[in-house]
Amino acid sequence: MKRLFSWLSALSLMIGCLGWFGTQTAMAAPAGLQFESLAAPMILANAGGDQSALRNKVSDKMTTSYGQKLDLNNTNMNLFRDIQGMYPTLASMIIKNAPFNSVEEVLQMPGLNEKQLAVLQANLDNFTVTEVEEALVSGDDRINNGIYR
């Protein structure tokens, strides 16, 4: 019985190690596209159709004022740390009351005290408002996007 157990253990270990001898590559494709060969990336790159679906909307947004100022509608809560007095209370209030149509609209949030209002007024030039981008605000990404400095 002891010998049988030893043989089964050795066999299991050898079978488990076979996974180290090869690598599998994963390929992602937009929904609805199916690929039959390993040349799929070339097919996707040459495929006709709507190329705007393949664009990175967040990278495009970085070329706007979003990349230079804190966007009240899209910025992650951690980026409000750069402005003294904003994190965490004012930052969470802004996230809860977003979206805003203009920068000045942030001054009309309910529950602001005089000190918070003064901090917001002093920093209006550091803010911008752009269209809400789902990739930046979906789930809990505005609260914790997993990027730490």
Automatic annotation (TrEMBL):
A GO cellular component annotation in the UniProt record = plasma membrane-derived thylakoid membrane
Question: Keywords on this record?
Answer: Electron transport, Membrane, Photosynthesis, Photosystem II, Signal, Thylakoid, Transport
Q: One Pfam family for this entry, by name?
A: PsbU
Source organism superkingdom = Bacteria
| Cross-referenced InterPro entries | PSII_PsbU (IPR010527)
Q: Where in the cell is it found?
A: Cellular thylakoid membrane; Membrane
N-terminal signal peptide: 1-28
Provide the topology term for how it sits in the membrane: Peripheral membrane protein
Q: Name one GO biological process term.
A: photosystem II stabilization
Q: How does it assemble?
A: PSII is composed of 1 copy each of membrane proteins PsbA, PsbB, PsbC, PsbD, PsbE, PsbF, PsbH, PsbI, PsbJ, PsbK, PsbL, PsbM, PsbT, PsbX, PsbY, PsbZ, Psb30/Ycf12, peripheral proteins PsbO, CyanoQ (PsbQ), PsbU, PsbV and a large number of cofactors. It forms dimeric complexes.
NCBIfam families from the xrefs? PRK02515.1 (NF002708)
This chain's function reads:
One of the extrinsic, lumenal subunits of photosystem II (PSII). PSII is a light-driven water plastoquinone oxidoreductase, using light energy to abstract electrons from H(2)O, generating a proton gradient subsequently used for ATP formation. The extrinsic proteins stabilize the structure of photosystem II oxygen-evolving complex (OEC), the ion environment of oxygen evolution and protect the OEC against heat-induced inactivation.
Which family is this protein grouped under? Belongs to the PsbU family.
Mind telling me what this protein is named?
Photosystem II extrinsic protein U
